[in-house]
Predict the structure.
Amino acid sequence: MFALPDPDAPAPTRPDRPVLRVRSTAELLALVPVTLGFEPAESLVVVATAGSQPGFQTRVDLPEPRAAGAVADQVVDAVVHQGCTRVAVIAFSARPRTAEQVVLAVGERVRASGVEVLDLLRTDGSRYWSLLCTDPRCCPSIGTPYDPLATTLRAEAVLAGRTVAPDRAALAARYAAVSGAAVGPARAALRAAEADAVAVLGLRGTRQLRRPSIRAVSAAAPLGAVRVDALLDALLAAAGPGGPGWSGGPERVAAAVTDEHAATLSVWCSLQPVRDLAWARMTRADAARHLALWTTVSQRVLPPYERAVLGLTAFAAWLSGDGASAWCVLDRCAEVDRRYPMAALVADALHRCVSPDAWKPFPRALALEACGLPAADGGWSPRGSRRV
């Protein structure tokens, strides 16, 4: 039902989005973990400081020097595609020689592409070295000490509600499958949600719900759409007013979403038309609230209902500009189903560095009609087919 926007189309400007301003090299280095969502280690990061997407960044695992050329080509493709005109190339590493060789190789390819290089930097997390500056007064050979946690930018990020995981593994753990003592309540809620759906739809058993025929999906979609739409209304309202700069926080959403809510969304969104209705609700301005909600559901979903939940979570992460989280969710989704189309679409957007600002939501009225619900002026009534 959905398609990616044209990656070559100019992305609209978003003056209403919160801005973190970089005032120094230390703040540039502090910006990276804030925008990634985790503290990078053994990573190569390229940050755009000018062009059509200032603040755009791409991260890859720091390669061995012999593989630097391939990584450099990948990075150059990304920055040129995004219309970057000036970038900083940074290695976060405890291996000085490897880091410097890779940064220099990437910097050379970036310059050859016509993109200006602001700086080539190496940092071990507490000191940084510029590979361009040779003046010992500002760039001593022992490195320049800095504390990323003490920068003004990091303080502004905290006030804006941005959190940074200690490493990528910790970030991925936010999207891990339910485990331990939480499994029992989640399984009980799932059984209740399945039993309710089976009874309401007049099915012969759970198997028909888990592997529905096309006819069963068409018959179930209207009721599922009503339930999911109303539940999302309630949960998003509980998360607080959305929009740019939303700072309700994942904790507030997690408190609102019960095991029963998560099970209901998991079961009904396994029906593609219902999933697409939930998908159509997401906008760039309100993506953070949706990410917080679907993250909470992803932490409680059980087999065989993970695919749709993880697809919606990954998309919300990409749409909110959190590519690192999107990759973590996609990694989990790949363990469930490597060929799930929605996950493949998000992965394609990430690989091609498509800007979330280019996303145009699918018309809600069409999503409702796909669920068998009448729509007039984008509205609908949960009572039968009466228009509103």
Observations:
- The first helix runs from residue 25 to 36.
- Confidence is low (pLDDT under 50) at residues 1-17, 376-388.
- Residues 172-370 form one domain.
- The first strand starts at residue 43 and ends at 51.
